[in-house]
Every structure is written in structure tokens, then in C-alpha cells.
Amino acid sequence: MEKKKVDKNDLIKKGNSTLKEFKQFISKGNVIDLAVGVIIGSAFGKIVTSLVNDLLMPIIGIMIGGLNFSSLTIRVGDATIRYGAFLQNVIDFLIVAACIFIFIKLLSKFSKKKEHEETIKKDEQILLLEEIRDLLKENQQKN
């Protein structure tokens, strides 16, 4: 079996090229935005989990007779099926989804308001420019 000879300089060039590509990829704004989003999402998840576990679930438990969802289990032979933990996670998900929905609706409302204000501003500028144009035409006709 023949050994393939590896050129050291060629290997270094390929490594440097790959490193440059990686630096370009990692320094792009989208990657940084994504990382920030993941970190904020993780922190938000902790807040929502605390909201659900420490505030909402005890209230729901009181309303339905002191039932604690996380302790709900079914025993089948030696296996324990913890469907209460699953229900807890479903409720967490629904609350997170509702919070995100409300947040997106608020952002949409603010962006529409801003667009409307910009449109009004542009319309006012156009009217002002038209008035200036008309005044300039009148001045030219008088002279």
C-alpha cells in the first residue's frame, strides 16, 4: 500500500482558509443576533417556568382541589409513567407561546403606528413641496 504524501504548506493554507471562513461566519450579525436571542430566550424560559410552577400551578391546584400535576403518575409493572410532568410541560409551553404571541402583537402594533406616522410625515412633506413648487411657478409667471 502506497502512502499518500501530504504537503505541509498545502495543509496550513487549507487550515488558514477554513479558519478565515469560520471567523467570517461567526462575526456576521445574524449569528450574534441568534446567540443573543437564545440567551434571552433561556432566561425568559426560566421566568415563565417560575411563573407556572410557583404561581399558576398552585392556584390551579387549589381550584381543582389541591391536585399537584407534577406528582401525577401511573405505575405499570416496574415502570412509572409521569404524565403529570408532561402536563406541566404542556402548560409551560402554552404560557410561553401565549407570551410570545402577545409580545409579537405589541411589536406589530408599534411598528404599524410608526409606519403610519412616517406616512403622515411624508404626506406633509409632499404637500409642502407642492406648495413651494406652486409659489415658484407663480413667481416665474409674474416676472
SSE blueprint and pairings:
Blueprint: H1 8-27, H2 29-63, E1 74-76, E2 79-81, H3 83-142
Helix pairs in contact: 2-3
Q: How big is the Rg?
A: 31 Å
Quick one: CATH superfamily? Answer: Large-conductance mechanosensitive channel, MscL, domain 1
List SSEs in N-to-C order: HHEEH
Shape: flat
What is the helix fraction of residues, given as a range? over 70%
Write structural notes for this entry:
- The chain has 143 residues and is mainly alpha-helical.
- The chain has a single domain (8-110), classed as Non-ribosomal Peptide Synthetase Peptidyl Carrier Protein, Chain A (Orthogonal Bundle), CATH 1.10.1200.
- It contains three helices and two strands.
- The chain has a two-stranded antiparallel sheet with strand order 1-2.
- Strand 1 (74-76) and strand 2 (79-81) form a beta hairpin.
- Helix 2 packs across helix 3 (83-142).
- The longest helix is centred in the last third of the chain and has 60 residues, at 83-142.
Q: Brief overview, please?
A:
By secondary structure, the protein is mainly alpha-helical. The chain has 3 helices and 2 strands; from the N terminus they run H-H-E-E-H.
Key attributes of the depicted protein:
single chain; 143 residues; Non-ribosomal Peptide Synthetase Peptidyl Carrier Protein, Chain A; 3 helices; 2 strands; 80% helix
